[in-house]
């Protein structure tokens, strides 16, 4: 979990908080999109670069040239971390007029990755200096589509959390109120967990989910703190709100890295929660475990007396298979779950055939080694059933499976 002091130390941590809270891209995350770009693309000199002498001083005109040079260095690739840092070192000293000047330099096509990154930095800087004006501009085309208001929100929260909440409450659309509310609620809960709920209720109800989410994460680490959280939960009248809190509590490991004990279900039941909420929480814990620790979840679901639906067990197996195919296949074969192996093979084969698989194109079209290994495991344990299924496939696919079987026995 990020601690309050770490949240407020710099532009990267502040924007990372908002990006993580809102689930959106920022200049910290655009690299994951892996888009090609032409960083050397230049603006239309007749319409855009004319803004420079009006808006920028001679000194800052030189800074703009340096930024353009960095953009050209990227070529058809993204800005490297060092280049991003160099860009921010320049932009962090800009005035509002200089921010506007360089926004005018950036070509209209914001789909280029370097342009997206630089525009995010520029709006963050503008948000540090004049957040209301920055927000007004960020909500206009073409910036609105790229959701640069999130960069402004991140900067604004760093200087005036109450101010951004007031602005969103008075002027924001419902999606913006919700986004700002979630981010603001989490900051409120980090800053002062004791008063966060009361402040959200009085000042900005849209922040309530963010507050409760953060409290759920903070209070999941011990039986005593969970007991307090369940008492807090019982005081909330909104049933949908309670369920959202339970989802947050079940998802705590994904955010904190802490293990959530199964005993938490019994703790919730002991708190006097209604049976339907206890059942909801049990199911949510199980669902989250499928993604967080599929092996452990599958082994627990497979214990004698478990009434976990078969499709959920199969889901856990398929998720485990993504990360540890050999271990998952061996476990299924050794625990009487060969039917899991068979169904996975059939499902993948159907997907590949529908995708137009051709002989010799296994890597390009996804005939991965795991699928072939699983088929061989299935055939070792249920040779007749596996062979009967294989005969239903086109001849070139049968040959592909048979060839893999011969390779495996060499």
Q: Overall pLDDT, averaged?
A: 77
Rounded Rg:
27 Å
| Approximate shape | flat
Q: Main sheet, how many strands, which sense, barrel?
A: none
Poorly predicted residue ranges: 1-19, 23-56, 362-366
Distance between the termini: 50 Å
Core attributes:
about 400 residues; mainly alpha; about 70% helix; disordered N terminus
Give the topology, please:
Elements: H1 4-7, H2 11-22, H3 51-55, H4 58-73, H5 81-91, H6 96-105, H7 113-129, H8 131-138, H9 149-159, H10 161-171, H11 174-191, H12 193-203, H13 208-218, H14 223-234, H15 239-250, H16 252-256, H17 264-270, H18 275-292, H19 294-301, H20 310-323, H21 325-334, H22 338-354, H23 362-365, H24 369-381, H25 383-390, H26 395-409
Helix pairs in contact: 2-9, 2-11, 4-5, 5-7, 6-7, 7-8, 7-9, 8-9, 9-10, 10-11, 11-12, 11-13, 12-13, 13-15, 15-18, 17-18, 18-19, 18-20, 19-20, 20-21, 21-22, 21-24, 22-24, 24-25, 24-26
